[in-house]
Amino acid sequence: MDILTGLLIWAAEAVTLAVLLFSRWYYEREPLYLSWGSGFAVHGIGAALVAMRGDIPDFVSIEIANTMVLAGIGLWAAGLMQLDRRPVEPYVGIPALIWIAGMFLDPVRGDFASRAILHHVAAMVGHAMIIGILLYHRGPPSITRRVFASVIGIQFFSCALIVLMVFTGRPDALVAASHSPWLYLPTAFVFVGSIVCGARLLTERSELTLKELARTDPLTGVLNRRGLLEEFHRSKGVDALDGSMIAFIQFDLDGFKQINDVYGHQAGDDVLSAFARIGAAAQRGRGSFGRMGGEEFASIIRVSDMVEAASIAEAIRSTLRRHPISVGEHRIAVTVSAGISLCSTKDADIDVLLTAADKALYVSKTSGRDRTAVHTDQEIMIVPSTDFASPTPFAAEPFEDISVSQQVASLKRIVVLSQ
Prior knowledge:
InterPro entries: Diguanylate_Cyclase, GGDEF_dom, Nucleotide_cyclase, Rev_trsase/Diguanyl_cyclase. By secondary structure, this protein is an alpha+beta fold.
């Protein structure tokens, strides 16, 4: 089989695959299918135009055709970025730009061997980009990605070998080039391997998405009860030997039923989502925040001592208190009560922590709401607040203002009393 026939066969396969990908994009509207489909369509049409050299103007079969082939590689790279849910970076256009820039040089534009070298060097850059995207990503390690990168690596080295053969042989036309088998045979293998690996990556992403949905609260976007418990066991396994402590902080929005009754359930959903954002932002990479159910939330966080755990709970509570939530034309003042339990990471038991935090939360509620209680070995103590006394619609009673230094001192006394 000569190289022109091989290019036409490849063009037919690429365009066929593009049609299938466009069909899937039409029904699912996933941008990656549009990028991959466009990549195969542009690449295949470009290869067909190259094969038609002599029957169509040289400008079309050389400049435009090779630009399309290299642009297709960039679109494949863009699709991989979208597969990883990353924004498409402008550098995906580099392979095509290398070709366009080289064609402004007269010695390159007028010599077939120089054009062939330029094209394959640009293709190598594109393949290197794809390998980098596959290997360097934020997700967990994947055998499929490494195999996919190896498959693309075959095409990379095939192009490098062609560059070497063209440089030494200096052919003056495509049909006269002795490197034909090194072009279409690896391409055929890479084509099949890429389809298999690409399909496997899509399957893995779907599985990961389903797992995330199973552990994520659909309304607020934070973890659900199952996700929180999984994070507890993961955190305990990772940090059991570093001497840290695990704090379980349980939150319950005060008077939430009244919010639903007065403002409607949509307003209630907005309040839940707003509090979830506040709680998640307070973790700062040290723990996990999630919704246990209804208006109850929880945080599982690594801390050094009780003071740190109480400070985090108080930061979340006071932030919510001081920032009414805008719902349509209403600004709803919302407060939250918190209960804290604490244990060394090595000895932590989720059932014990849950029970202790629930008891502390009950004390917070019965003591006037809008406050934090800590469960110690001996008793449950209310954390002194730095808030100014200011009645809210859902706070049963205000309490006195305490300075930050007084609060820290009081927290330390709580620690001493609990030892």
